[in-house]
């Protein structure tokens, strides 16, 4: 990974997030000093925010495989240029918070192009608990 999340102030979604067709420009904002908990914040609607985390913090074995079409859409030249983020569904506590493993957000740090990718893997959950 060549860039940290705090070095990516603005990303452009090549495909809008499901349910938000007009929102394509987001800022990636670190919410803690370690850069583990972040927020994707819409630049056009500041009230629209998604909590995201890199999978390594909670799912170290997570390694999604994406299609050649996704690689082309995001103009990925090297895997080192990609940050994978999991969208969280915040619960009342860390124990009730879940992550969507089936639809990660991929960010190309070189081009700042991003997309939420729906994976074709029935073993992955859309509501995986962050902690056991």
From TrEMBL:
Purpose: Acts as an anti-CsrA protein, binds CsrA and prevents it from repressing translation of its target genes, one of which is flagellin. Binds to flagellin and participates in the assembly of the flagellum.
Lineage: Bacteria, Bacillati, Actinomycetota, Actinomycetes, Propionibacteriales
Key words, A-Z: Bacterial flagellum biogenesis, Cell projection, Chaperone, Cilium, Cytoplasm, Flagellum, Translation regulation
Subcellular location: Cytoplasm
Record text on subunit structure and interactions: Interacts with translational regulator CsrA and flagellin(s).
KW Kinase (keyword) present: no
Keyword Lipid metabolism tagged: no
Name of the protein in its database record: Flagellar assembly factor FliW
Pfam families: FliW
């Amino acid at each position: 990974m060549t860039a940290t999340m705090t070095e990516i102030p603005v990303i452009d979604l090549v495909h809008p997030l499901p349910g938000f067709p007009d929102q394509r420009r987001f800022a990636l904002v670190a919410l803690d000093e370690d850069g583990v908990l972040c927020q994707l914040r819409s630049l056009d609607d500041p009230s629209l925010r998604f909590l995201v985390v890199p999978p390594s913090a909670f799912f170290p074995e997570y390694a999604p495989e994406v299609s050649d079409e996704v690689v082309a859409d995001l103009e990925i030249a090297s895997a080192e240029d990609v940050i994978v983020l999991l969208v969280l569904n915040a619960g009342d506590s860390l124990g009730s918070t879940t992550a969507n493993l089936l639809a990660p957000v991929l960010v190309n740090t070189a081009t700042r192009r991003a997309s939420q990718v729906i994976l074709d893997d029935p073993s992955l959950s859309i509501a995986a608990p962050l902690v056991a």
